[in-house]
Structure formats: C-alpha cells, structure tokens
Design brief:
Layout: E1 2-6, E2 9-16, E3 28-31, H1 42-48, E4 54-57, H2 74-87, E5 93-98, H3 100-111, E6 116-122, H4 131-147, H5 150-160, H6 166-178, H7 181-192, H8 198-201, E7 208-213, H9 221-230, E8 234-239, H10 246-249, H11 251-268
Parallel strand pairs: 3-4, 3-5, 5-6, 6-7, 7-8
Antiparallel strand pairs: 1-2, 2-4
Helix pairs in contact: 1-11, 2-3, 4-7, 5-6
Length: 269
Amino acid sequence: MATAQVNGVTIGYDDEGGEGRDTGRPTLVLLHGHPFDRSMWGPQRAALASGHRVITPDLRGYGESTVVPGATEFATFAADVAALLDHLGVREFALGGLSMGGQLVMECYRLFPERVTGLLLADTFPAAETPEGKATRNATADRLLAEGMKGYADEVRGKMVAPYNTEASARVHRMMLAAPPEGAAAALRGRAERPDYRGLLARVSVPCLVVVGRDDAFTPVADAEAMHAVLPDSALCVIESAAHMPNLERPAEFNAALRPWLDRVAAAR
C-alpha cells in the first residue's frame, strides 16, 4: 500500500507486478465502483501482476484517499487518475473499471484518449442520468449523510452480489460499510451530473472488453450488448452465476476474460 499527494489530496493506491517495468506488456489501471475501494480488485492484482504492472487507486472520498465533502465531478476523479499516473511515471496504460468505475473510464478516455491503450467496461452503462435518476442519486446522498452507510448497504447488498455467492456478498458488504458517507455522497452528486458517453464510444480506437454478470440487475446484459454493438473493436463476455460484481463473484472467469483482451492491447501497441 502507498499514498501520493496529487491535486491537493492524498490518493491511496497499490502498484504491483511488472518486475523491472519493461515487460512489453501493458500497464493495467483499474478503477473501483461505488461505494467500494481498491481492495475490490484483489483477485485481479493477484492473477495478473505476474505479467503486468497493475495499479489500483482509491478514488478520492474512498478507502485511504482524502474525503472531500460536497460534490465530486467526474472530471475531478479523472484528473486525479491522470495526476497519480504522472506521479508514477506511467504515460500509457490499459484502463478498466466496474459500474461507476466504468463510467470514469469513459470520462478518462474523453479527457485524455492519447494515454489509454485499451478499455475494460464492466457492469456499467454510458448514458447520462435521467431527471428521475438525478433525483434518486441526490436523495441517496442526503440519506448517506444523515444515516451513514449501513441501511443503504443492507438494502443494495442483494443486487450488488447474487445471494448465492455468499463469500463475495460478505466481502462486498464489509466494503460498503467501511465507505466514508461524505465521500460516497460526493461521488453520487457528481455521478448525477455526468455527461452522456454514448457518442464517445463510437469513436473509441483501442481494443475494448465489455463484461457483465448474467444476473446483474443494475446494469443488465442488454446494456452490455448495446455497448459492444457500438464500440468499433470490442469483445463481450457474459459471466454466468454472477450479478453486479463478477470480478469478486467469479474471479477465475473474470480474469480469464481479461487475458485475451490484454493480449489484444499489447498487439495493437
């Protein structure tokens, strides 16, 4: 574990693998979703760091990173990612994220596409928030500030992870309970105002992988299929017996999907 001072805040991160850092394999950066932290990528770090440099930051407001109350715009999250990678001396990288993290991947590609060599979009969707969705995000933010994380975590647990995946469910529940309410609320308010990325996806020029759990109720398979259809160079992987967190529910299957995508990224470079 390490921390870096960037953009006036502390960012916690893990930076593993790629011994010697001149492997010819793409550096992989993974962004967590809401309301989680970088520990959600533990199975991917363990599986991939033998051949790749794998960097997993805590977004501001989560984990070991600074909590900034109010609203955190997606452009601010993206600027933190860019600044951290500058700090680490990483110019180009394959970039992946799950749920809100996947939307932040799209924001990063919008702002600095020249640095991104591949996209992983897991259990996410590109559309802007609807008026009803904005109201819900802001109401949830108000609730987190008033009540803390427990009631929310208890309610969404069964959608985040399929109930039959008991070990992953317990792990995800612990992460949600540990999330700082002020940071989670700030992210929700920023997420409510995110742009529409659907037009951007049609212009993506790097190898992409779209992954979704078969039983995901938040971002169903149809959303993943729609992204796959629009992206010029993409593969689609639907992971059986998983809901919104297939990287933790079915890590072996998730990791197996990442390897050929990373091969495609390396070949494209």
